[in-house]
Amino acid sequence: SGFSLLLWIGAFLCFTAFLIRKITTHEIDTDNLILGCVLVVVVVVTGCFMYFQEHKSQKIMESFANMVPPKATVIRGGETVTIMSKDLVVGDLVELKFGDRIPADIRIIQSQGFKVDNSALTGESEPQFRSIVCETGDRTVMGRIAGLTARLQPNKTPIARELEHFMKIISVWACFLGVVFGSAALAMNYSWIEASLFLIGIIVANVPEGLLATVTVCLSVTAKRMAAKNCLVKNLEAVETLGSTSIICSDKTGTLTQNKMTVCHFWCDGKIIDADSTTQQKEAEEYNKSEGMCATLCNRAEFIHGQEDKPIQSRQVRGDASEEAILKFVELTHIHGDPTEFRHKNPKLLEMPFSSVTKYQISIHGMEDGRCLLVMKGAPERILARCSQMYTENGTFCAEPPNFPRKDLRFVGFMSLIDPPRPQVPDAVERCRSAGIRVVMVTGDHPITAEAIAKQVGIITCDEVIEAFNINIIETLPPNIKNKAIVIHGSALRDATNQELDNILFNFKEIVFARTSPTQKLQIVEGCQRLGEIVAVTGDGVNDAPALKKADIGIAMGISGSEVSQQSADMILLDDNFASIITGVEEGRRIFDNLKKSIAYTLASNVPEILPFLAFVLLNIPLPLGVMAILCIDLLTDMLPAISLAYEKAESDIMMRPPRNPKKDKLVTRKLYFLAYGHIGLIEALGGFFVYFAIMAENGFWPDKLFGLREKWDSQSVNDLMDSYGQEWSYIHRKELEYTCYTAFMISVVVTQWADLIVCKTRINSIFKQVYTLAVSKELHGMTNLIF
Amino acid sequence: MRLPSNTVFISAKILLFYLLFYAVLIGFFSAMLAVFYQTLDMKKPKWQLSKSLIGDNPGLGFRPMPPESNVESTLIWYKSSDKGNVHYWKNELTEFVKSYDKENNPHEKNVEECTNYQPPSEGKVCNVKMTKNIWHPCLAESSFGFEDEKGGPCIFLKLNKIYNWNPEYYNSTSLPQDPNAMSEYLRKDIVDAESRGEDGYMSPLIAVHFEAPRRGILINIECKAWARNIIHDRVDRRGSVHFELMVD
């Protein structure tokens, strides 16, 4: 990164200074040699630290990927073998059974009721065997998406941009000071060697040695804190990105919703009854048994054995997602007791499985009382077309079908299914809104479904929704669109120009994109970025990978997320919960504030480090603060307090203010410089100089004597330097006095830095208010603990 | 008339703030420093001897010293036949010796004549008598030996002044081994070096006359001051001085 580059240059300059001294005067300049080495060590150590931090996240990720090692059963050379998916070659015969992952692009050559979960490709679950491998590796559809992802150049993270900006300022400032004082030294009749040594010295003194380490540690502290809240950060710099996010492009399935089909309503006997997915189905229990019978029998889904002790909603089911929903519903209502048992009692005699052509499913069961029951389930229009009667509670007339009838059936009822939103999502969306973050839904799902979910979770709150299903609507948008929401169909988006897309993204506060393709997701992200927004993208499918990579921060799902999406993301939500993003935003905003404090704190001590050297050059006084003392301040005494500021509590409700404007709210602003350098730094330097002059005077050198003394003071040949009292100092004793001054100066800087720490603790609030608020909140905590 | 724009007004306010802020800061700094200097004695240092960093082990200085443009050097290098070359060294020494004249001492009244090996009376300092019989040829009249075609120069050695430091003289029994051996080569001349910080005090002084240094050879010279309370260390140059001499 740019910052370590600055340190490398600093180290290089130190070695140059060392070499100049070695060649011209044959003296070994240990100070510069040590400083150079320390700078190199600092860069290397922080580099390693960063590597290990990211390696650790990488390992957590790998453990996710390795939970289910992708394997495939293939017929190769006439033998059935199980091999790793990556070892497949074109021409292998793949045998797939229920629940297997499709290992490559395959051509189906023989199948029976085969259905594929395409959700990894499309982002939606939509439930077709023996097949032949026709493409492998990068040539598969998956591989092509991965290729598109790999070719994308991710943007620099905002914090990296901020640090680069800061580095530029520091370097320009350092070089400016160096050149000004270097030429001043030349004008003061110093030799060019001395002048260039001063120049190097001033540049190096301006480098905040400890800052890179401080920033790295601060970020990893937050990364750790976020990991504890189920946000695994892969890239350290992405820690802050979430805090400056202004738009979240969220996927629907699995992120906003639970990715579990659930029965939400059913209709029977002329009444619509709510089915609650969480509590016991009280109302459903009172409901007529016929629909329950049908739901239990005309259902191929089964619970996987050995999970009977788990709550019903989290039990694993073998079967189609909607049948799973119905099975769980039946299990919850328990109208006919245990569904498995009920099925045993009423065995299936014949079955016609669901197919996308017929869109219904029929099964015939032998009932306990010896009669046969035909039950049918399917798409509403298909079922209704085959019904001539309707079941009512009062209808006692019961006509058993004499044989396999496919019409004139009796309609029992509807069951409507939904992939319900996660319970925490509406609240999280609301909090995003109050934090000034726009949530845009980008889904591959049907616009109607998308709109319904968007309304449920609060992405759409407007009453008026423009449904842009084709380009004409986009081209003829009404003039007053401020308080309207828009749902855009992928095909409309395909025909829209970038300008029209920007126009929509800029004007509408509530936007839902439906039926979008991977490239369109990318297009949306790029559109937001053109508007200067910091974009976060959440996604779990392979199709999301390009958008995840292009986004300022890509957020993948830890549980349902595909491997490719996790690899291209910067952050992983370990619990797949959109609400975790909010904690991430909060932590990100907090670390930005706290980094500001850390930098203000660290920069302040730069002034008392540079001024002694300037005074040494311009006023010709013995050096008040040595290089080693500077290193001690920067790398020892300043580091821990600066890191401690990363733990600082937020000053106000950071979730109630809009996200920072990356163009205006910089990490290091002029205000911060003036405060750190112009106020605090200067006071610290004066404190140091006071101690310096005091110690010199107490030992005999009054200030008037000190000015212009530098050359004689530093000359080993002068063994009898006279002080203000006429005492004569030998070289060794003078140097002892000088080192004492270094120590005193250093201690005074350290002590003033304590005060600086308290100054930097808050940026907006008064320290008393902050301490008071904390104390009060602790007090309240204590009180509530007492009460409960 | 147009009113100054808002930014100008704000900048002016900021400028005024910094002017006041720095004025107050510097004022406070100077005031504090002034208060601090009130606690110091003008006549004697606050910390003395071992309490001070100067310690109680004086070092030695030599004269003449090389010019300030060559401040890192301790080499006295000249050509005795070259008047211009010798001029600098002669001049340096003349100025140095002058400061020892009773007439040039700003506290002339304090200077009294001492008998050999006797300390001066309370509050007085001894006069350094640069008489011909003792100091020849280390006098300005004979160019401090610098112009001598065969002989060598006179180098003056002075003990560093340390406030309130008193030498503990050796007596005949306590003389260490080394000086005894040395005494065969050097004229033994115990120097009075009491320094209580009296006004007009001059550092004790001896002159070393190099009688016939080889021409064109660099001679390394180390001189030590001997007293019971002076310890020596060559590396740190404690209680001693080092210089080089080269006569062409």
Task: Give an account of the 3D structure.
The complex is a heterodimer of chains A (788) and B (248). In chain A, a hairpin with a 5-residue loop joins strand 13 and strand 14. Chain A is of the alpha/beta class. Chain A has a 9-stranded mixed sheet, sandwiched between helices. Chain A has 30 helices and 26 strands. Chain B is α/β, with parallel strands linked by helices and 248 residues long. Chain B contains 4 helices and 8 strands; from the N terminus they run H-E-E-H-E-E-H-E-H-E-E-E. Chain B has helices spanning 6-38, 83-98, 132-135, 177-183, and strands at 60-63, 75-78, 111-112, 125-126, 154-159, 205-209, 218-224, 240-247. Chain B has a 3-stranded antiparallel sheet. In chain B, strands 2-8-7 form a 3-stranded mixed sheet, with helices on one face. In chain B, strands 3-4 form a two-stranded parallel ribbon. Chains A and B meet through helix 26, strand 26 and helix 29 of A and helix 1 and strand 1 of B.
